[in-house]
Specification:
37% helix; 283 residues; 3-stranded antiparallel beta sheet; 6-stranded mixed beta sheet; alpha+beta; 2 domains
Amino acid sequence: MPFQSENSPIPIPPPGEDELPYDDGEPMESERHRAQMDLLIEVLQLFWRDRDDVYVSGNMAIYFSELQAKKNDFRGPDVFVVLDTTRRERKSWVVWQEDGRTPDVVIELLSDSTAAVDRGEKMRIYAKLLHVPEYYLFDPFSGALEAYALDQASRSYVPVPPEANGDVPSASLGLRLGVRQGIYRGLEVDWLRWLDAQGRVLPTGEEQARAAEEQARAAEEQARAAEEQARAAEEQARAAEEQARAAEEQARAASDEAKRLAARLAAYEEQFGPLPGNGPDER
């Protein structure tokens, strides 16, 4: 809706992201909350690094109405994902600058000071005003994960039951969310992780680098093993060649000995006559 000057009936363009405040002034509750937010954002940005139609961010103000923009009374979600948009740098998400696009997925990280708002006012805004299809609540310290899907008829959220292992599907993204223990930024705790359709954890940049290093090390070990096998095969071939040469020399020596003995026998018989049993049969 266009803004209207108090002194003139001529509509003026509403403010955009360059004019509106983008820092909600609310710091993350703890180091773990900040790391959890960055983990969820980093992994999706890496997973979709070749796509230009997805936007992933967090702790960013979302402006959706003239009144709310004037009052600046709405804090941004901890993590949100928008599909069918343009990936570019933004200071805030201004709905009227984004062709009416609103988030497809929102994740809020619970704390004692924010749980009531996350389950109350924010949930109402996401459902009734922004019509966010999927809403998730996660407590980084207890590891409790809640999933909600928007009921289009009532414009309210209904709980999504988890799977047997506690994971929950994201129909909008074709992914899953699940709690997995791991190390991120030096913290070894239970993290909320994005999973693929088969339940495999989508890796962070550090995990990708570690996996690549392990693959390189495995390839190096395989190459070393192949080299050792080739060297062993070469030594076996050399040993077989030496054995064949020794056998050939033995055969040659045996042949020479047989010729020598035959020559001595011929010389003897020439001088003394045939040996007994070597002459013609006599009756």
